Input
Amino acid sequence: MAVKINLEKYGVRKKGFLGFSYTTYFFNAFVPIFRLDLKGFIILLAIWLASKGFINIIGYLPIDWGNNPIYINLLKSLLNMKLRNIVTYIILTAIILFVISSLIWILIGIWYNKYYIKRLLDEGYSPVENDNYSLALLKEYGYLEYTEDEKNNDEKMELYKNIVIIVKKDERIKLYVFLAYFIFIIIIFTFIAYTFIYVITNYLNDITLIEFLQKIEN
Output
């Protein structure tokens, strides 16, 4: 979760979000839906479709795979390939897709909250009166400028500084958890890859996919 702040316009309040959007990384285009952000939803949906959505929907396309010559020729090629090569390609493809998708959505997670809160501010939303928490963070993240009165008010600046210190400490904890998630995924990928390669190298040798399927049937 990013840092939440309150913004108001003509008595209508909305939540603003500062910092990296972890929810956008994990839930992609669903995040703008819950924020009632139609523009953001359209942008993130387009990115999702371009980056990985086509993989999820290809199975629902009205294609007769059984009579598709491209699919049949591909299947024939796979049947005659060494099983260890197929597994290696699958593992490498999965790793590459995960890395690319992760990089894309990390960048989107960095960008989306900036885009969203800047739009709210441009539309006339502003911090609630005397909301020092929201003011301190908006100024720290560069969305608002410090006024001369604030700069000359040591007590106010000290208050802002303490708020920022506490928030940044919480953000570091979130970052550590996020990094732990990536380390866990890498360990799982490594374990699965090692297991498959070990089994294929030591038990299946140079067997082809069709030979492997025939072995199973027998």
Observations:
- The chain has one domain: 3-217.
- Residues 44 and 169 are 29 Å apart (CA to CA).
- Residues 3-217 form one domain.
- The radius of gyration is 25 Å.
